[in-house]
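Duplicate of #3305? Posting structure anyway:
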């Protein structure tokens, strides 16, 4: 079967911004600096963004000549015989996007990066520093008194803190999805790929220069999953104007990679967390779900294992496992004006037909397939009803939705009061979580890009034969997902996800022929390394949503934490409380502005004048939405037809031959 080339996301890896009085010229090249592209940005428009891309690929010599002629042409125009007409403004590694408040547009450039991981030879970078440059020149600038305040709010989103990108690997999708695109037959890929053929024109015609023409054609590539892209709104204005090579999509969350040596064989363990840009925000200001089924603090965590002796997608051995955390998908909130550490939980709207939960689970079926397994860790027994409110409503919603689903695809609901078991001296929390983890991984399976190794055929393990997912000629697919939640989706959730990840890691190592049984003990180097990765992952996600690092860690639940940990936990609790009470509102404003949830408009209330952002995130409060879905057939018909396979992995969903699925 003919296969397509690896999906190219962005081939412009090095940029230089040149400045004249009337124009910016953004010159981008590949890493080897053998091919160049040029964007022309007009600086004479006070409020509009005018960008022209001729889509011609230049050589290094052609670009040098071009810049020389630009310099000479602008010098002559301005009568500056002794000085340069073209200034080198800044060097960069990518364009985050373009944004406008009340004056003109800004361009945001990545000026510093750090390599964090390598997957199949594709580098993943962390944004270390950015530069925000105002485009219109001073002679046409129309000043506004509130511009500086909007700029400060926008820059309060620290792009140097846990934003990641890759030039050649789609971070918004899972490894399973990316390698599915890689194996897609060329005929089908051509019918699904995005193409844009446009006649070229001379972008330097009014500069008095002669350039070579050339037509620009988009290459074969997969579309990013916009839910996990954080600069989608910033790139939206240029998406249809410039060549695909300029578009660099960034994700927010976590990325870490560690190296293991197993009997001399190098193995890379990579952990990637993708934070949703929908209904995004801070702990007490974003709870539950919005009217479109997007939930607060939704994070997709993927652990990728690869045999580092062969770093190639086509020849190497790769495995991945994906799980999700997210707020309970109901209309609920907590009022922080009471200044209580645990504000009372309020159900904001009655939803007897579980409409918002239906939208949420329909999204999950589309992206992950079935089964969907909910691990609900909130308290079930309390003296004063608090967390139990959510449990009761969630049970009712799942029960209602399940009665209409085909029996083989019903949502699996696992309630487990983790806090109660933690207090018990008789129960070992992690042992119980391990039992749940085994049952979950057996149902969903995991992804591996190679057939079962000879050693697993020669010495079969009984657990291996019970594994779910789909078996295909080239390996195994994960079908379905574990969705874990507590109230905050921070401490308890991270420990539960670690235990499920540890169980999946054992199967992954076994599938690659690195261990003889799909079991891993706690006191091994592999698990210690994996635990450190998960602690960093949990701390990072907790800081982003809750304002502090994890309060309760894996060691806390193992009851082996040192005595000094207790004082640290108290400090983290105080830090979280301070952040929630005093800085979360400002952080929420910044996120709303950065993600384009709020657009500053002349003559309308400013962001800081709004009493609430509720109507910004709940679109049904501002306009009538299309007709509601059926209360009984609540899913998308095309999605349900392809279960247990995810509809988003279109090629496999439409070619069920040679698939052997079991749940």
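Output from current build:
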């Amino acid at each position: 079967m003919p296969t397509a080339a690896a999906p190219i996301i962005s081939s412009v890896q090095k940029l230089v911004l040149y400045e004249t009085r009337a124009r910016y010229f953004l010159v981008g090249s590949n890493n080897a600096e053998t091919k160049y592209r040029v964007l022309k940005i007009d600086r004479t428009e006070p409020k509009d963004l005018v960008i022209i891309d001729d889509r011609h690929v230049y050589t290094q010599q052609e670009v040098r000549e071009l810049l020389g002629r630009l310099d000479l042409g602008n010098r002559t125009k301005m009568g500056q015989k002794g000085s340069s007409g073209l200034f080198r403004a800044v060097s960069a590694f990518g364009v985050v996007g373009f944004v406008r408040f009340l004056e003109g547009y800004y361009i945001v450039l990545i000026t510093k990066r750090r390599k964090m991981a390598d997957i199949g030879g594709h580098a993943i970078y962390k944004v270390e520093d950015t530069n925000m440059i105002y485009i219109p020149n001073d002679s046409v600038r129309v000043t506004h008194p509130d511009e500086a305040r909007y700029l400060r709010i926008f820059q309060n989103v620290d792009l140097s803190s846990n934003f990641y990108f890759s030039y050649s690997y789609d971070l918004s999708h899972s490894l399973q999805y990316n390698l599915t695109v890689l194996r897609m037959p060329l005929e089908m890929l051509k019918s699904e790929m995005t193409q844009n053929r446009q006649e070229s024109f001379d972008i330097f015609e009014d500069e008095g220069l002669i350039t070579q023409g050339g037509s620009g054609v988009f290459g074969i590539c997969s579309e990013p999953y916009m839910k996990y892209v954080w600069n989608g709104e910033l790139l939206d204005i240029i998406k249809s104007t410039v060549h695909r090579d300029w578009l660099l999509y960034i994700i927010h969350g976590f990325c870490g990679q560690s190296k293991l040596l197993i009997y001399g064989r190098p193995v890379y363990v990579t952990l990637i967390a993708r934070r949703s840009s929908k209904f995004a925000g801070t702990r007490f200001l974003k709870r539950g779900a919005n009217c479109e089924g997007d939930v607060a603090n939704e994070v997709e965590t993927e652990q990728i294992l690869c045999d580092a002796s062969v770093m190639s997608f086509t020849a190497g051995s790769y495995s991945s496992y994906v799980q999700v955390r997210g707020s309970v998908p109901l209309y609920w909130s907590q009022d922080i004006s009471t200044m209580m550490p645990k504000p009372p939980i309020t159900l904001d709207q009655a939803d007897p037909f579980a409409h918002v939960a239906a939208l949420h689970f329909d999204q999950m079926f589309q992206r992950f397939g079935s089964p969907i397994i909910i691990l609900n860790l909130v308290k079930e027994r309390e003296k004063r009803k608090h967390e139990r409110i959510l449990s009761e409503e969630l049970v009712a919603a799942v029960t209602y939705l399940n009665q209409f689903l085909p029996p083989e695809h019903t949502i699996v609901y696992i309630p487990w009061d983790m806090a109660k078991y933690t207090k018990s001296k008789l129960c070992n929390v992690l042992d119980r979580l391990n039992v749940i983890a085994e049952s979950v991984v057996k149902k969903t399976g995991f992804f591996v890009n190679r057939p079962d190794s000879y050693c697993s055929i020669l010495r079969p393990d009984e657990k291996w034969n019970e594994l779910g997912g789909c078996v295909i000629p080239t390996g195994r697919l994960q079908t379905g997902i574990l969705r874990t939640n507590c109230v905050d989706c921070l401490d308890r959730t991270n420990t539960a996800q670690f235990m499920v990840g540890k169980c999946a890691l054992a199967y992954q190592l076994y599938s690659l022929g690195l261990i003889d049984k799909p079991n891993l003990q706690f006191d091994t180097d592999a698990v210690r390394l994996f635990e450190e990765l998960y602690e960093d992952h949990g701390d990072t996600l907790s800081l982003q949503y809750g304002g502090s690092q994890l309060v309760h860690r894996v060691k806390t639940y193992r009851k082996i934490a040192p005595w000094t940990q207790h004082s640290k936990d108290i400090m983290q609790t105080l830090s979280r409380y301070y952040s929630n009470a005093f800085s979360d509102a400002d952080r929420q404003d910044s996120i709303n502005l950065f993600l384009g949830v709020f657009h500053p408009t002349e003559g309308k209330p400013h962001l800081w004048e709004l009493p609430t952002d509720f109507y910004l995130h709940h679109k049904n409060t501002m306009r009538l939405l299309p007709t509601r879905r059926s209360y009984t057939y609540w899913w998308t018909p095309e999605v349900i037809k392809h279960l247990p396979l995810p509809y988003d992995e279109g090629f496999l969903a439409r070619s069920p031959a040679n698939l052997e699925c079991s749940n």
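Confirmed duplicate; merging threads. Residues 9 and 144 are 37 Å apart (CA to CA). The first strand starts at residue 14 and ends at 19.
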